[in-house]
Amino acid sequence: MVKVALLGCGTVGSGVFRLLESNRDLIAARCGEIISVVRVLERDTARAARLGIGPEMLAADFAEILADDDIQVVVELIGGIEPARTFVLQAMERGKHVVTANKDLIAVHGRELFDTAEACGVDFGFEASVGGGIPVIYPLKHSLAGNRIKEVIGIVNGTTNYILTRMTREGSEFSHALREAQELGYAEADPSADVEGYDAARKIAILASIAFNSRVTLDQVYVEGITGLSPLDIVYGRDLGYVVKLLAIAQDIEGQLQVRVHPAFIPQAHPLAAVEDVYNAVFITGDAVGEVMFYGRGAGQMPTASAVVGDLMEIARGIHRGASGATTCTCFEQREMMPVDRLASKFYIRMLVKDRPGVLAAIAGVFGSHQVSIATVLQKTSGEEFAQLVLVTHYVAESDLRDALAVLDGMSIVADICCVVRVEGERR
Amino acid sequence: MVKVALLGCGTVGSGVFRLLESNRDLIAARCGEIISVVRVLERDTARAARLGIGPEMLAADFAEILADDDIQVVVELIGGIEPARTFVLQAMERGKHVVTANKDLIAVHGRELFDTAEACGVDFGFEASVGGGIPVIYPLKHSLAGNRIKEVIGIVNGTTNYILTRMTREGSEFSHALREAQELGYAEADPSADVEGYDAARKIAILASIAFNSRVTLDQVYVEGITGLSPLDIVYGRDLGYVVKLLAIAQDIEGQLQVRVHPAFIPQAHPLAAVEDVYNAVFITGDAVGEVMFYGRGAGQMPTASAVVGDLMEIARGIHRGASGATTCTCFEQREMMPVDRLASKFYIRMLVKDRPGVLAAIAGVFGSHQVSIATVLQKTSGEEFAQLVLVTHYVAESDLRDALAVLDGMSIVADICCVVRVEGERR
User: Is the ipTM of this complex over 0.85?
Assistant: First the structure.
């Protein structure tokens, strides 16, 4: 029997507890050990009682769990940085294996955690930190290990994918779709971590670190959220053959790493275009395997519990075989980061411009003089003073585009540069 | 260093050899050991020479490899049953780990191979036997291990998926699309194993055995190929909101297993509907994780090599940590198989019928008296003697449908029952 302490029995914690109960025999048959939660750290005793966790199972404090040498694995589901970080480090130092779903912790303190796990000879599982129940960290580290990874593109935030799906299907405004997501429990009361892209940024920092064997932290990720998108852009995008998604992208560009989160148009036929609602997917390109994609529910109680229990079973197998403590920090390289303005991308640009002859020529002239080559122009003449002008560029340097837009922004014929969205996922 | 013998350097074998060369340092850094091919069994010395394999590396026969105690791993890429089976068993008995891409071998002799691996304390990797480079066996056994699996639905044959994609996009006849696939090297000169569904049947037998922990062999899989489909059915299916795919399905139906391969209509919005050309995907439903899908290239030299090398690296990690020999047969249950005629499905049926009043009533009457309830009727009146009648049923017992069709087949108003296709992937 493998004895486990559960830190926190909120949504995911109670899911883990229930899954270990309901599939107890199957889990034992598959990994050779019964996995049993013997101690729970949870202040809300009523919540614990609802799961059938009596007072005798509740720990007074973390020190009690730490001191109990029977406990082999600590499952950290408190979330946030502290006290989670301290608990995890202390558990490792006491020789306990750790499983966590805490993306904040890994994206910020990953190196410290892996180094400590390695030094202490304990296992450290964190599959649940990215993509909920979707197996992605494990396959990337194992099944795809023979590949030099070129690119990881993820839809890794269910809240924003739900909002964008609503906006696309029903033409709703962002604020309306957000409210709907909040009512359904898909978005928090304070949705900023999701809609500003920081949740996705944490996840792509973790995936990039694994894919490229080089530590990428949250502050190295360029981040743009989805709050600036309007249903109008989604409609124009559709006319151009695109679907909008909040993408988390990590690329190896001639040895440098470029990691970013931003809304992007992708071709309607791209496998990621069909990933809708709260579903997540991670699309990986490797030099041997080509393109592979992992798809599923990126959040939620039982999908996340599935990932946590998968990690627990891996640890149980190790204990069963006397082969624990295989964690090593896989970031054995130190790759330089490429700043986003050095990136070459295609851009969709929507502007409100004076509707009179010569305007397009003037605008095209500004782009041309900044080496920004235009691929497509959609001009919606309105018969009014201003018209919507939609452009799609060829691949251009981001810095050139920014310079051109700065000039255009100062011109009297340009009332507003409403929206700039990168185009991704096309073959070059 | 982990020393490997390669049996066969055809397409996949040379891919494995090249991948181990080109990513040698990265592979070593990731798994702790240099993986080195030290011996090759290949009759075609010119082919070996093209890879830079000189005569000194070529083994005269398998006995030479077997006798060499320095060789820790044998990679079997000969294909077919014999001599592959004998070589694999002998290698295991000499304490050598084995990696194979051989689905025929596993689908037929799986139990013998796993039992031998376990008895000999060696590792046995076979990720490449299903889905080419797509990680599916490993995630199913590890990441998703906490789930009771309810269903596995795969598009696991690239040749037929390519043919069906052509037929759907261009309205080509089967024979034309097959010829195109042959010209592109996607189909063999004798395409029967692919188009009759037997390749997919082998793969779903393997996946079902893992997902349900109960051995499923090829002869237990109900198989229908795609040769009976016409472009007309694809067009009618599209009008009804469906896409046609050759599906390999394994289900847990109240404790019994139902495993089958047949063409099926799936809703256009189903994630599998977007899997086109030679791409493969495996869609898995677990009780905790919900729906997950793995997508990628299901065949081809380098994708398959990616899977083989992933398995090799797992073995190298085990050797490095002194923790080899973890293979156990995971089929610890013995589940009953449910015959296909006990299955309840929705069916698409296309018939050629006399175009005169009362015919529909007569046909509907036959279905009704056999408990076959009709959901949708499309009648294409032609002004000629015969008309196309397309029906979609509600969920009905397969045996009831067959009885009804047998009666209809004997009626003078029915000229032909042209096509019967199951409808899958809808929520019930």
Answer: yes
